[in-house]
Amino acid sequence: LDERLPLKKFSDFLPVVGIKPELSLGEGDTPLLRLGCLGRKQRLSYLFAKIESQNPTHSFKDRGTAVSIQKAVALGFKRFGTVSTGNMAASTAAYGARAGLETYVFLKEGTSRMSLMAAGVFNPHLVTVKGDYGCLFYESFSLGKKNNIYFSNSIDPFRIEGYKVTAYEIFLELGNGAPKYVLVPLSSGGHLIGLMRGFEDLKKDGYISSIPTFIGVQAEGCAPLARAYERGESVYTRIDKAETIAHSISNPDPPGGNVILRMIRDHGGIITAVSDQEMLEAQSMLTREEGVFCQLESATTLAALLKLRHGLSLKSTDRVVLVLTGSGLKSVPSLESAGFKSRELSLEELSETRL
Ligand SMILES: Cc1ncc(COP(=O)(O)O)c(C=O)c1O
Prior knowledge:
Order of helices and strands: HEHEHEHEHEHEHEHEHHEHHEHH
Shape: globular
Bound molecules: pyridoxal-5'-phosphate
Radius of gyration: 20 Å
């Protein structure tokens, strides 16, 4: 059974020796669903979504946490931590609990109550920190050093290694092939770095002849990397104030930003941004037309595809993958504005109602 764990299956590609299966929560092996209805509308026969909400704490973060917890335990740490806008909080708290480590989670101010609860249930030390989120990222490392806490933040090198596995899975799910385009929501950059490295590994080892074109998608209200990309700059400028409802991808000072700009330039990728309204519409399309309820931030991928579709060199037979990074149940604004009708009837009234 242990051999079937994705971390074990792909261990030749990962920098961890002696993987301990007991630290895993069964992450990975998520489905790649064909989006038939949306694909037909876009004249794309092979439009897919990688459903990362099917990870143990409902986001892609578990793939990274699964590797960094292995490292933390191997290095003898008794304390584990992270800085988070939401999903990484729950993921770190869950894996910390599983490993029996004392866990510290520093949350970005404004994190939704839903995300707070999703982490809180695992009983970590939970602190919502007022102030600059970019500075908190670096401050956590000095606190970690002083207090012997392994901080597995968004661009922790071992976390990034875990994200490579998504690329290997997509390759296998497509019958040993690479898609033409991969669209990913982009904030700190860790996830996209991992995905690109995963496909680079496959190319280096001769499994694929070319790597996909990556499209990193930011929220218009917090798009330091999209701005730098548009201006042809190799170094991003941090932005002062993020204004978007896509809280989980609103990092005004993304620590992996300059690496992303270089990798995207080297691979001929694209970085773009979409508005809150475009995300909400895309989320609703995925929900109502495909039955896939993803986090608002994840819906940026479909929004970007709709926006860029005609400018991309895409044949109807090209394979396109949207990486849907998290679950819709964490999208409080979308849940509140879903606009559905619900009636209350007695059993007698129900029997007499024409349905
Ligand atoms: C749902 C979701 N999608 C995408 C991202 C962006 O990932 P990264 O910060 O690694 O770029 C995050 C980050 O927290 C997220 O929570």
